[in-house]
Amino acid sequence: MPADGKLVCVTGAGGYIASWIVKLLLERGYTVRGTVRNPADPKNNHLRELQGAKERLTLHSADLLDYEALSTTIDGCDGVFHTASPMTDDPETMLEPAVNGAKFVIDAAAKAKVKRVVFTSSIGAVYMNPNRDPQTIVDESCWSDLDFCKNTKNWYCYGKMVAEQSAWETAKAKGVDLVVLNPVLVLGPPLQSAVNASLVHILKYLTGSAKTYANLTQVYVDVRDVALGHVMVYESPSASGRYILAETALHRGEVVEILAKFFPEYPLPIK
To answer: Which residue numbers delimit the NAD-dependent epimerase/dehydratase domain (predicted)?
Structure first.
């Protein structure tokens, strides 16, 4: 479906996943409003350098807890991609902006009568449940156990789950068409200069800070596929509900083997 210059908003536009969403939207002809903390910050320069950015990208200052700023930015948009989320394990600084930010974005989208809101959640809102039968296939109907996340102080998963629940509750109450994406661990080339949390997962092996690797298997997905998934569910009239984005399951040992193939000069663990 051609964009024909349609106007959309991407919250947290300078982030790892969001930057790729902005890039793809511009390439498909959309006009994009991106929310960032400080539009003048040099760390957002990578967005201005994207093809089509000069003509069809504007950056707007809008904090997750500033409803008026969010509402002003979203007003007039056909759709919203809500990717902004605090990346911290501190519940004091994470929970309020995660939950209320989701609510404020949905409220603003309802007021603006947008076509659809695409919400970036996480696999962390899906699979963290120790009481689930190990033979059960984890799919989009599954939810993490809030008490387990809280008791184990896994505030990232806790925050992702309550934020997504807040989004669903608000969307239902306001009559907003909401689609949620739950990606697994996201890897791939960053557009921004800052190193994000998921890339640290790989860098720890290359820097030598990880002397061994855990006997664990992780599921991964490429950031470019995640961005494409966001745009596809926005453009597809039949898209609804939740979508897990997953590509490849790799044991930590397999990850190290791949790194050794491409970066043999680095101090990679051998066990």
So the answer is: 8-240
